[in-house]
Structure formats: structure tokens, C-alpha cells
Amino acid sequence: MGETIRIQVEGGEMSAYVARPAAAKAPAVVVLQEIFGVNAVMRDITDGLAEQGFLAICPDLFWRIEPGVDITDGTEAEWKKAFALMNAFDAGAGVKDIAATIARIRSDPGCNGRVGAVGFCLGGQLAWLTATRTDADAAVSYYGVGIEGLLDEGANLRKPVMLHVAEADGFVPPPAQAAIREGLAGQPLATIHTYPGRDHAFARVGGEHYHAADAALAGERSLAFLRAHLGSA
Fold first, then answer.
1. Is the N or C terminus of the chain more exposed, i.e. has fewer CB atoms within 10 Å?
2. Domains with residue ranges and CATH for the chain
3. For 233, how many CA atoms within 13 A lie in the half-sphere containing its CB?
4. Among the listed residues 26, 41, 90, the one whose alpha carbon sits nearest the alpha carbon of residue 62
5. Where in this chain does the record put each Dienelactone hydrolase domain (predicted)?
6. pLDDT value for 151
7. Which DSSP string do the residues of the chain spell out, in sequence order?
8. d(CA 134, CA 41)
9. In the predicted structure, residue 1 carries a pLDDT above the cut 90
């Protein structure tokens, strides 16, 4: 369904997977990857957003470390590689690449000028930084890791952001969740949804902690949020 394009970014060129909706013009959504690269899960999410009427794009944010990473959560070796990639990843450079992606897709003839972002895991952290450091019109973060240490970024929040928090997230423990809720209390641009009993990556189809009902609920909330702030085709 999708196509691969190249985006000029600071220091080089990055690939991105693009899925187009039926409409000639539509709002765009940048899909921000987990630690497994632009794999089948991310491409399926990108395709799914296109089916919902968005011009969707998933950039290869690990390109500075290793272009074309496409692994799964199925083996110990893949997990080891994924964590090594995450630890080597420069979030600051990544956000600049996201900003370049936003500019590129906003200029696409198929874009109506509105661009949002949705990210998962590492991408969930990047969705928060996209909301605070770029000109994206809205952002959605699924179980973003490390946001509790980036709450000072909230002073730069100018556009709405939605956070999906898994209550039993092993990577975002209760003290971190409490810090996020406290840090964003009274922030009208931030919406937080908590999912009782859910663990990290509860929306990853086929994953160990996948929960169909709550994944569907989070998806419905995200779509309504994106349509409210980006419009529709």
C-alpha cells in the first residue's frame, strides 16, 4: 500500500514510509517508531491511518545509527539490538529529523497543511518532544518512556498533546507516572488517559502485552483527537 520517499535532513538523507489516503488532500500524521525500527508493526499503523483518511508517514529515525532497521520483539537477539539502538539514539537529532519530516509532508500536494504526530515507546517520548519543539499541530504519545525527565519541556507546549499511560508499565513505573500527572496538572493542552492493569506496548498487535479492547479504546481516542485538531479530508 505504501511507498518509500527520501527526505533531506541535517547531515544527510533519510528514508520514510508513506501511505496515502483515498482523498486528494488530507491532514498528515507522522508515525514515530518503537525501538524496532520501521518494521511491519509501524508500517501497518501507517497504512491504518491512511485508511482512516490521513496522509501518513513513518521516518527511519535510526538512520544515523543504522539505516533500514526492521526487527521484531520476537527474539532475545532482536531485543538486545533494539536496546542498543535506543541507547545510541540522539533524541535531539531525532527531533530535528522529525521537524524535517513535518516540513516535507506539509509541502506534499496531498497534504492540507495540518500535520500531527503519533508515537509509541521511544516514539512516545519523541511525540512529547515533537509537541514541545516543533510546529506540529497535535501529538499523541503511547506509553512514552522518559517523559518524567522532560517535563520542563512543557513550558514550550503550544499545541495539544494526548498521552496514553499504561498503569502497569514496567518502563514507566508508578513514581514516573505520578510525576507526569503532577507536572501536567492544570495544563489545558495536555490530556492524559491511564489504562488500569495494562503493561508497556499494550497496543502493539502481536506483542506479549497486547490488549485488544484497550488498544481499540486508545485508538478511538487518538483518532478523535487527531480529527479534532487536524481536521479531515
1. N
2. 3-119+129-230 (3.40.50.1820)
3. 19
4. 90
5. 14-229
6. 97
7. --EEEEEEETTEEEEEEEE--SSSSEEEEEEE--TTBS-HHHHHHHHHHHHTT-EEEEE-TTTTTSTT-B--SSSHHHHHHHHHHHHH--HHHHHHHHHHHHHHHHTSTTEEEEEEEEEETHHHHHHHHHHHHS--SEEEEES-SSGGG-GGGGGG--S-EEEEEETT-SSS-HHHHHHHHHHHTT-TTEEEEEETT--TTTTSTTSTT--HHHHHHHHHHHHHHHHHHH---
8. 25
9. no
Q: What residue type is 45 in one-letter code?
A: I
For residue 44, the number of C-alpha atoms closer than 13 Å in the C-beta half-sphere is 9
> Does pLDDT of 109 surpass 80?
yes
Task: Please give the positions annotated as active site.
Answer: 169, 200
pLDDT on residue 233: 66
Secondary structure (3-state) at 155: helix
**Structure confidence at residue 232 (pLDDT):** 82
Helix or strand (DSSP H, E) at 58: strand 55-59
- In angstroms, the CA 7 to CA 107 distance is 12
Tell me what the mean pLDDT of segment 72-83 comes to: 96
Query: pLDDT digits over 151-179, tens only?
Result: 999 999 999 999 999 999 999 999 999 99
Q: In angstroms, how far apart are the furthest CA atoms of the chain?
A: 46
Nearest in space to 119 (alpha carbons), one of 153, 91, 152:
91
What percentage of the chain has pLDDT greater than the value 70?
99
Average pLDDT over every residue of 74-79: 96
